[in-house]
Amino acid sequence: MATLAPPSSSLAFSSPSLKLSQPSLLCSSRLSLSLSSLSQLSTLSPSLSISPSFAAYPICSRRPFTSSFTVKASAAEKKKVLIVNTNSGGHAIIGFYFAKELLGSGHEVSILTVGEESSDKMKKPPFSRFSAVGAWFLLLKEIVGAGGKTIWGSPAELGKVVGGAAFDVVLDNNGKDLDAVRPVVDWAKSAGVKQFLFISSAGIYKLTDELPHVEGDVVKADAGHVGVEKYIAEIFSSWAIFRPQYMIGSGNNKDCEEWFFDRIVRKRPVPIPGSGMQLTNITHARDLSSMLTLAVENPEAASGNIFNCVSDRAVTLDGMAKLCAQAAGLPVEIVHYDPKAVGIDAKKAFPFRNMHFYAEPRAAKEILGWQGTTNLPEDLKERFDEYVKIGRDKKPMKFEIDDKILESLKVPVAA
Predict the structure, then answer these.
(1) Distance in angstroms (rounded) separating the CA atoms of residues 199 and 327
(2) Where are the beta strands (DSSP E) in 249-355?
(3) Three-class secondary structure of residue 141 per DSSP
(4) What is the pLDDT of residues 266-312, one digit of tens each?
(5) What is the pTM of this model?
(6) How far is 108 from 102, CA to CA, in rounded Å?
(7) Going edge to edge, which strands form the sheet with 108-114?
(8) Angle between helices 257-264 and 317-328 (to 10 degrees)
(9) Among 179, 182, 228, 316, which is most buried by a count of CB atoms within 10 Å?
(10) Beta-strand runs (E) in 185-224
(11) How far is Cα 273 from Cα 338, in angstroms, rounded to an integer?
């Protein structure tokens, strides 16, 4: 196998912004990639299906509209914000960055984390950063140190957990289905909360021959997040939905870039399913938090809208491997394989979807005036420095699934 030198950049796409006719109705056009070019990258759905719309939660045309509507940010009143934060998965980091940005802007913040403060999960980042200053203090201020409040408990008993505290805004960054989120929504409505925000997922979009996914595209009717989005739109007059994809950032507790670093620093081949040219979107958590903060400070503009909470650039799977190698200052050997031929589950063998998974933040740019700052070459350098600082590069690891793949392909691995 040939060894590839670290590249200077990754394959990326960007698109111009479009005008939206109404702030409360998401309708946009999309950037099309030709089917001839996509056919050699991966297999996509051969057809599109249309699901019915309903008044409180419209599914809109993707045709561009001409309008002079613009939103100008102004000094926002200080808000009392409650963040209901998940205790697992990659989304946990969103609540931390959001709280930090809100506090920096002068808002009052309380974070309710699902579970108990004494649990093992609370001893790991990002949760360990909610209270005492630890090894991460050189990177970011602690939530409590910045004036925030932390709470642990069950979202199903939110009224008891927060006592008589009053809030202007609630963000649910925990539930993935209506059973989990309904108690939060119902309590917030009864408590007089003015604005409700929800972290959904760009994974709810249906496969399509036309990329990238934009707000208003058809979603999977049976996806748990969809039911939550609809319910929130029915209950609250001021609401906004955010659909993130993959994210990076200090304190992330779900492997993303670390998966690549683990193999690169140990001089192991990096096995990538398919052609490696599949497009995906990786966003720094600070961009997610800045988008959320704009919604809090511009509630009238954000109200009734869905926002793809993503970077405005895509990267190929091969490009991600090369950028991680560049950040580490090391070469990388990429090996491609067919999961079915090898007999492995790609979901267990690789941290990303084995397909094009790329959305665009058009609504946030047009409606909120949001601008992304994710810079993968630079952000990955910072992440690699942290990777080495915590000693993960020296940690003993097993690569059993990798070894099965490499053995099937007769690719040697250095002892």
Answers:
(1) 30
(2) 270-273, 279-280, 282-284, 305-309, 315-316, 334-337
(3) coil
(4) 999 999 999 999 999 999 999 999 999 999 999 999 999 999 999 99
(5) 0.78
(6) 7
(7) 149-153, 108-114, 80-85, 169-173, 195-199, 239-244, 305-309
(8) 60
(9) 228
(10) 195-199
(11) 6
DSSP assignment of 90-129? TTHHHHHHHHHHHHHTT-EEEEEEES-TTSGGGGSTTGGG
User: Hey, where are the domains in the chain?
Assistant: 35-46+61-408
The 10s digit of each residue's pLDDT in 333-378 is 999 999 999 999 999 999 999 999 999 999 999 999 999 999 999 9
Which uninterrupted H or E stretch holds 169? strand 169-173
DSSP bridge partners of 83: 111, 171
Residue with tokens 């609809």: 230
Contact 173, 102 (CB under 8 A): no
b/e sequence 329-365, b meaning 16+ C-beta within 10 Å:
ebebbbbebebeebebebeebbbbbbbbbbbbbbbbb
* Bond into 377 cis (ω within 30): no
Q: How does the average pLDDT of the chain come out, rounded?
A: 81
Place of tokens 């006592």: 163
Question: At residue 359, what are phi and psi to the nearest 5 degrees?
Answer: -115, 170
Element (H, E) at 247: strand 246-248
* Position 115 pLDDT exceeds 50: yes
Contacts of 197 (CB under 8 A, 6+ apart): 169, 170, 171, 172, 239, 240, 241, 242, 292, 295, 296
Superfamily of 35-46+61-408 according to CATH: NAD(P)-binding Rossmann-like Domain (3.40.50.720)
